[in-house]
Amino acid sequence: MRKKNFSVKSTTRPERVFLKTSETGLRDKCGIFGIYGKGVDVARISFFGLYSLQHRGQEGAGITVTNGKNLKSVKGLGLVSSVFNEEKINSLKGFAAIGHTRYSTTGGNKLCNVQPVVLNLKDEDFALAHNGNIINAMDLAREIPLNIKLSSTSDTEIMGWIIKNYEGRNWEDKILASFNKFQGAFSMISLTKNKIIAFRDTFGFRPLVLGQLNDSYVVCSETCALDTVGAKFIREVAPGEIIVIDEKGVHTVGKVQSIKKRFCLFEFVYLARPDSIFDKQLVHQVRQRSGEILAHESPIGADMVVAVPDSGTSAAIGYSKASGIPYGEVLIKNRYIGRTFIQPEQNIREMGVRIKFNPLKEIVKGKRIIIVDDSIVRGTTIKKIVKMLKNCGAKKVHIRVCSPPVTDPCYFGIDTPDKKQLIASHMKSKEIRKFIGADSLAYLSLKGLKKASRIKSNKLCDSCFTGKYPMPVKGGFRKDVFETIV
């Protein structure tokens, strides 16, 4: 199929670029959910599906439904539970829906960027919910005719317009024709007035799974969402595959050749929920195995193994099992803290870690403690935890990290700080140990982490640990730099 002529003139779309940095650790861009099923409350099911994917994004949420004639959306900033209520869910009537819970990587935290993105077209509206990051979004934006005004500052809307301007008998033809234009990571669920179309990049960076709920079909980011809504897991959407869900059921309508698969290894380390399954591997078990391997690689004498909850819990259990050192809790997590827009005064910012974690002083005092964490990004949080435990009387504090040092930024859908902000990019382990104030520090080897995943090494993306990217990345591009092309 031939591409339409875009007639891009020498006049280029003005660009404004603002730097944005994350104040915490690594975070995934978003979670996506879609359901097609006549006679069921698709909006309500989508709400619960998104609720179970809240860990993948906490900045905004949205649901778009179709009734066969038009699309209707409810979107807002904040957590799923704060965006939706009974009135809003009841207003979304239809037989198919897609939903999104967002953490921004490309495009800022603004209402206009909350997904699903909806292209309001004369012929047929088109909605998209995207997990991933398009690294050539700036170049693609220049191909969009200047008479089209973008309503958001996200790469997802750019994808939508590129798809729209390709020739094809239907949306799935347009997606197939434009597929290779998009460089980067995309697990995508789109909605038209009568069908859902889901597709995944040829590398398979981000997850996308398919399930069945009675006579309805569900496609979403993780199997935990299928479990929540009572759907049965069917299979993963293959890298490069385009599927359609409509009144005829589920069928593959296209397949772009996948030369090499590169599933994100960090999904197992931190991003995914422990009760999700990828490539037949339960995330909890992968993390537990990583803790066991870490105990063999870096043993140390101690009285207790503890976790930085909750992402370090599974690995800490594994470390305890392999080392024979009892597992216990000394950090009590406030699970209701969520995200706050109220910033403390400069002189009380040190209370930040205490708001999230409170130590059990009576148990800590006089003990040699091994703390197991999923990763160290900047080192500031673990430094505060070490200091807090030592102030409580801990005799020794040893840090064990169930992943290799994070040395390089991710360009494929994870919010990673700039390389210079990654402590392991410019400090050796001994220097990091001294910086955080620990008595010892050891990381899990990359070989050990891959062994724990039980997935072939050449099927995984490990670029955040190695700096070796599976595709060329333009020098100077960062997913958190792109802000507006309007």
TrEMBL record:
BP terms from Gene Ontology: 'de novo' IMP biosynthetic process; purine nucleobase biosynthetic process
Catalysis: reaction(s): 5-phospho-beta-D-ribosylamine + L-glutamate + diphosphate = 5-phospho-alpha-D-ribose 1-diphosphate + L-glutamine + H2O
NCBIfam families in the cross-refs: purF (TIGR01134)
Active site positions: C30 (nucleophile)
Species of provenance: Candidatus Roizmanbacteria bacterium CG22_combo_CG10-13_8_21_14_all_34_12
Segments crossing the lipid bilayer: none
E.C. numbers: 2.4.2.14
Name used for this protein in its record: Amidophosphoribosyltransferase
Pathway: Purine metabolism; IMP biosynthesis via de novo pathway; N(1)-(5-phospho-D-ribosyl)glycinamide from 5-phospho-alpha-D-ribose 1-diphosphate: step 1/2
Needed co-factor(s): [4Fe-4S] cluster; Mg(2+)
Free-text comment on the cofactor: Binds 1 [4Fe-4S] cluster per subunit.
Keywords: 4Fe-4S, Glutamine amidotransferase, Glycosyltransferase, Iron, Iron-sulfur, Magnesium, Metal-binding, Purine biosynthesis, Transferase
Organism lineage string: Bacteria, Candidatus Roizmaniibacteriota
Free-text function comment from the UniProt entry: Catalyzes the formation of phosphoribosylamine from phosphoribosylpyrophosphate (PRPP) and glutamine.
UniProt keyword annotation of DNA-binding present: no
Binding site for [4Fe-4S] cluster: C264, C410, C461, C464
Family designation: In the C-terminal section; belongs to the purine/pyrimidine phosphoribosyltransferase family.
GO MF terms held by the record: 4 iron, 4 sulfur cluster binding; amidophosphoribosyltransferase activity; magnesium ion binding
Pfam families per UniProt: GATase_6, Pribosyltran
Domain Glutamine amidotransferase type-2, residue spans: 30-248
